[in-house]
Amino acid sequence: MKKLIISFVILFALIAVVGCMFYAKTQNSNDTEMKTVALSEVTRSIFYAPQYVALSQGFFEEEGLKIELTTAQGADAVMTSVLANQSDIGFAGPEASIYVYNEGKEDYTEVFAQLTKRDGSFLVSRKENPNFKWQDVKGSTIIPGRKGGVPYMTLEYVLKKYGINPKADVSLDDSISFDLMAGAFSSRKC
């Protein structure tokens, strides 16, 4: 598992650096001035650690890039930022682009890179369960994120894979916005 996470981190760093370098070169290859790239990420995440290291160590500046990083707190907010020209690049699941495209919008985004191989969500519990089995979630309330988002769809897939009916065996509470999920989980007295 540790090797897999390290591989994802290295892959992400390479994609981010190459993507930003490509963007800067396509703007004006003869221009030696710093290019600003507005980047909107879906959330602060350990999965983006290489990006944070590169930013803090000045690696982008060495390549002539000034990164303006914002955290949008959800794929829908990332997409809004990109479509409103507030961000040049958005880090989010592919569903946001698909929804915009399916609405028939002339101005839609295009997914051009995969940064992680799997969804970055974790299933956590208030009670220790060293012998966890997926059947243990039956009767539980789970906060899966926005319906139609990658974390929600991934959870449904995993539940079904283990024979759990997401509509009957568990309660999926999608009423809590992405940026409030951790606080909502922590504050419940279940």
Provide a quick synopsis of the model:
The protein has helices at 2-27, 49-56, 59-62, 75-83, 95-102, 150-161, 181-187; strands at residues 35-41, 65-71, 89-91, 141-142, 171-172. The chain is an alpha/beta fold and 190 residues long. The protein has two domains: 2-102, D-Maltodextrin-Binding Protein, domain 2 (3-Layer(aba) Sandwich); 134-187, no CATH class.
Give structural notes.
- This protein has 190 residues and is α/β, with parallel strands linked by helices.
- It has two domains: 2-102, D-Maltodextrin-Binding Protein, domain 2 (3-Layer(aba) Sandwich), CATH 3.40.190; 134-187, no CATH class.
- It contains seven helices and five strands, in the order H-E-H-H-E-H-E-H-E-H-E-H.
- The strands form two sheets. It has a three-stranded parallel beta sheet. The protein has a two-stranded parallel ribbon with strand order 4-5.
- The two termini are 31 Å apart.
- The mean pLDDT is 83.
